[in-house]
Amino acid sequence: MTTKQAWRPWGVLAWFAGILFVLPVLWMVLTSLHSESDAATNPPSIAAKLTFQGYAEFFGATTGVSPWPPLLNSASASIGSTVLVLLLSVPAAYALSIKPVRKWSDVLFFFLSTKMLPVVAGILPIYLVAQYTGMLDNIWFLILLYTSMNLPIAVWLMRSFLAEVPKEMLEAAAIDGASLVTTLRKVVAPVAMPGIAATSLICFIFSWNELLFARVLTGVVAGTAPVFLTSFVTSQGLFLAKVCAAATVISLPVLVAGFTAQDKLVQGLSLGAVK
Amino acid sequence: MTTQALAAPRRMADWARRAPLLPALLFMIVVTQLPFVATLVISFLQWNALDPKSRGFAGLDNYATVIVDPDLRSSVLSTIVLTVSVVLVSLVLGLGLALLLDKKFRGRGAVRTMLIAPFLVVPVAAALLWKHVLFNPEYGLFNGVLTWIWGLFGGATPPQPDWISSMPKIAIEASLVWQWTPFMMLILLAGLQSRPMDAIEAAKMDGATGWQVFRYLTLPHLRQYLELGGLLGSIYIVQNFDAVFTITSGGLGTANLPYTIYQTFFQAHDYGQASAAGVVVVIASIIIATFALRVVSSLLRNEVQS
């Protein structure tokens, strides 16, 4: 026990690095709890009185502009596209691993290559389509785009999970005459579930964070939280506490989801290469 | 049985296999490939939204404009500099942190959680945080800390640099490195933890030094994780829009390709030119992705062999 608690130089270094990296986040939260005038002092007033004024401002205390529509838009865009991604990617991954089509690896690389295609390269035609079909400022259009943004990642991720389904168990199920539904439920699902969790987490985070599409394609009706956040910066007056409160609230879902599912986060980010 | 009679059920079976794949494949082709084809077509047109009457075929004119356009040239360079520097610096820092976190010490889980935090801040929020709360010359945290330190030592006039104006590129890179280092750290840490420990123990028994173990066992094992981190990081950072848009609005020579195209499209309304620039971006990103990967992997291979 004593060795475990011994002072270790790398432990100190690691703690120092950890504090350095988390400091801006803590500072953001602290600033969000200060009054505007305490937030803008030099040197910083660390021990200033705490207040929820910044949060009240974020929720529209003086302007009367509610943050709920953009927050709900972000939630529907993120959840909607994640559901759609799962509906499309799980069967596709099945056809790339458990009962693979011919040349399945080519198909897989096609999916990844679409991720290399920069978003900006296609944004003009996408904008024009939205304009001509009256889908500008429509959350459904954003859901479709976020689905296309995350689908390649999800297919890679789900395939790498489904590839772990033991072949012998699939064969045994076939010999026993198990129906497709039974095989899926008893053999495939237990392996696929962690993959589905990792995929959902990653798709949710990427959609929640997205700015470029949302900025170009939405306006007053379907604007998302990141777009709303940029509107908090004003050219006059102090706005630090307000912006920090907004940034904290908007980052909260991602922070909570990411912290509670750290290993799922790693699996998802590495496209399933890390298990 | 004739071959024909056999071929029909086989074709059926083939299609049954393909069926689950088709919805996803069709969706991707329609939503990502068709717009790109359209971009390619528009890039050969003369098409300005403010002057709709003069729409017509432009041949290579847009490309000629785009290639000689100094703004676009400098944005190509900015994109490369931004991507390469952020990916390399965050890979190196991420590797250092992963090596630290691979050791046993008190509160390792807490440190890991603290290190992940930057990656979980919404990118626009992170950019706003760096711009207004940290970099602000009058009341930002950085200058505040400088004032505070100078105050401790009785210095009357602390330096108060205007970070974003005096070093715009570094300012953007710093905020991105802060967000992407945790990502690299997570991937490399997972790589470290999947090392074959018996080989390392054996090497240590044979008297290998820590450096030798790192260089001949750990680094070769990590190579694929470094490549993975580098590749995924490049894919995302080459397309970065949030940080450039928020921190400098593309000013002070920081405009990268995504920002420049965004601007051409929304301010100039020149669809033909914006599309040509988009095609150039695609070509550039393909070059960067393949080239960067090759450089990284060959550097490592030399390192391992020498």
UniProtKB/TrEMBL annotation, chain A:
Residues 71-261 form the ABC transmembrane type-1 domain. GO terms for cellular component: plasma membrane. Belongs to the binding-protein-dependent transport system permease family. It is a multi-pass membrane protein. This is Sugar ABC transporter permease. The chain crosses the membrane at residues 12-30, 75-96, 108-127, 139-158, 187-207, 213-232, 239-261. It comes from the Bacteria. It is found in: Cell membrane. SUPFAM superfamilies: MetI-like. Its main location: membrane. One of its GO terms (biological process) is transmembrane transport. The lineage of its organism: Bacteria, Bacillati, Actinomycetota, Actinomycetes, Pseudonocardiales. Keywords: Cell membrane, Membrane, Transmembrane, Transmembrane helix, Transport. Signal peptide: none annotated. Coiled coil: none annotated.
Automatic annotation (TrEMBL), chain B:
InterPro entries: MetI-like, MetI-like_sf. It is found in: Cell membrane. Keywords: Cell membrane, Membrane, Transmembrane, Transmembrane helix, Transport. Pfam families: BPD_transp_1. Residues 76-292 form the ABC transmembrane type-1 domain. The chain crosses the membrane at residues 21-45, 80-101, 113-133, 170-192, 274-296. PANTHER family: BLR7065 PROTEIN, INTEGRAL MEMBRANE SUGAR TRANSPORT PROTEIN. This is Sorbitol/mannitol transport system permease protein.
